[in-house]
Each structure stands twice: as structure tokens, then as C-alpha cells.
Amino acid sequence: MSKPSTLTKASKTATGGPAPALVGGLSWTEEMLDVPGFEKQGWKCEDLRLPLRVYRAPTTPRGAPLVLHLHGGSFTFGNLDNGLTVASALVQAGAVVAALAYPLAPAHPFPAALHASQTALKYLFEKRVALAGRGTRLFVAGEESGGNLAAAVAMKARDYGGPPLAGQILLSPMLDPRVATRSARDAACGPVGCRWADGWKAYCDTAESAAHPYASLVNASRLVGLPPALVLTATDDPMRDESIDYAARLEAAGVAVQHHTFAGPTNFPCALLTPPAAFADIAKPDAPAGLPLRPATIDGGDATTGSLEPIWRTTLADRFAVFFAEFQGRAAAGRLATA
């Protein structure tokens, strides 16, 4: 029988609580989430202990939205620091954000990352009042491969009776392992030497995995009953076409959807993985001050390029704030224009 997930504090203050760090206007703590192992045909995932970093602003009110955030990295690379652009914008929009360092492929193929994400979602739901206050509602968000996981978490929560989600936020989500849309071709994606194609191959280690609707969302035929969605992409985004198609399919299934395509150049989704300049010297609670960010790399090279400073500080946070307000009953429906 699997043991329940728990959180182990990574560092403590003199009073025994988690020791917060304050960087770039955010306070945060990093703790460890115990994820029970599981088996699938031909492969076993051992018990895991994964970092779960909780961000908030000093002014975040009780009852704020509570968001499980999943970083990008084509399923194979990336870390919590590379999720700072989106996590920071979510906090700026008024949320408490819990970011999970999910297990990466190829060492942990599908469904390891989804299993860990679902475990984190259940834990957050159980601890939602302590983390964000009474009246909080639970959301899931992710960019690129994290967008895939966020969409899959929402689908699995629907299929298995919860936890209840108020909404899902998908930025440049990886949804189609074929990597064959026009926007993917325009970005010179393909079967050889393409980060996203290679990531899909590592994540979906069998044909069955590649066809599973929790991995390949393009194969999901039942979208009815999913939580409201905010889907964001850009004209120069390789995942543009699959993002727009998924938003349209959700709408056709009766799901409330807000979606927008930013005008390029944005360098989506790579710019979403580049930590904002405000966090250039972020320090972990248990590390010396001035510890530099851990950049996501592939084979030792720089895997994230470009900057999203003007967007993450204003446009992204504004979009998130409207989404939170609309689906928490604090704004008139339809305030966010579609494109």
C-alpha cells in the first residue's frame, strides 16, 4: 500500500517554521514533497522526494488563489529557477504559488512527472487553508512541458474525482508529440536535433505512452467537464497551432476558455524559461547569499535565450489577474479578449 505524501521542511527558523527568503519582492520557502513510488509494465518508479517551493508576496491576502506551478524544459531539463518568470507573474497577479520540481525524463518517463504533479495537487488541496487561507481556490499552471502536465493534471483530477480545480493556465503547452504543425515547421522543429521532438521521445518511452491522452493531449477525445482554461501562445511560438487548436476544442466541449496570441517576436516558449533579471542573485534558504540561478542546459549548453521582461511584469500578470478574478466571481465574465 502506498504511503501518503508528506512535506519535510528543508530549513527552519528558530521557531521551527520554514525559513523564508525574500528576493525580488517575493518571499518563499522550499520544502520536500514525498511522492510514493509506482510500477508500470516493464518499469518501476521508486519513492521520490521532490522540492516544492512556495512563493507569495508580503501583501498577498488570505484567501488568495493557490496555484500549483509546473516549469518547462521539454520534459528533460529545467528546474524551479527556470519557472521564476511565470511563477513571479502569478504572484504579481495575487496568487500563492507552489512550484514543483517534478522528475525529468528519460530517467523518469511518463507517467512519473504526472504522478508527482497529481500528488502535489492533492497535498495542496489538503493544506489549502494553511497555505492560502479560507476561501482559496486551487488552480494549476505550466509552460511548455509544464503546460502539458498542467492540462493532464486537470484531466486526471476530473476523471478521478478531484481535487476540484477552479482553473488551468497553459502557456505554450506541448500537446502534440507529432511535432508536425505549421508553427512547429516554421520554427524548424523536426525529428532530428529538435529540443521538443527529443523531449517527446524521452518522455513517451513507448508507443502506448505516446498515444495516452494524459501524455498526448491531442489524442484526448473527452474534454467535457474540464475546469476553465487560460491558454496563452504567440505568433512566433512553435506550439502556437496546438495551443490554439486545444483552446478551440475546449470551447467546443463547453469549457470556459480565455485565450490570447501575443504578437511576436516573443521567443516563446524559451523566454518563459529565462529567469527575470530581478532574480539574478536569488539565494536558497539553506545556501549562502548570492547563489546564482541554476540555468537549464542541454549537454552543457545554454538552453534558454531571450528576455520576457516587458511581458512577464505586465501583460502576463494582468492576464492571470483577470482569469483569477473572473473564475472567483470578482469580475464580469468575458473581460479577457480572445485572439
UniProtKB/TrEMBL annotation:
Where does the record place the Alpha/beta hydrolase fold-3 domain? 67-264
Keyword line: Hydrolase
Q: Which InterPro entries match?
A: AB_hydrolase_3 (IPR013094), AB_hydrolase_fold (IPR029058), GDXG_lipolytic_enzyme (IPR050300)
Can you provide one Gene Ontology molecular function annotated for this UniProt record? hydrolase activity
What's the protein here called? Alpha/beta hydrolase fold-3 domain-containing protein
Q: Which organism is it from?
A: Roseiterribacter gracilis
Species classification: Bacteria, Pseudomonadati, Pseudomonadota, Alphaproteobacteria, Rhodospirillales
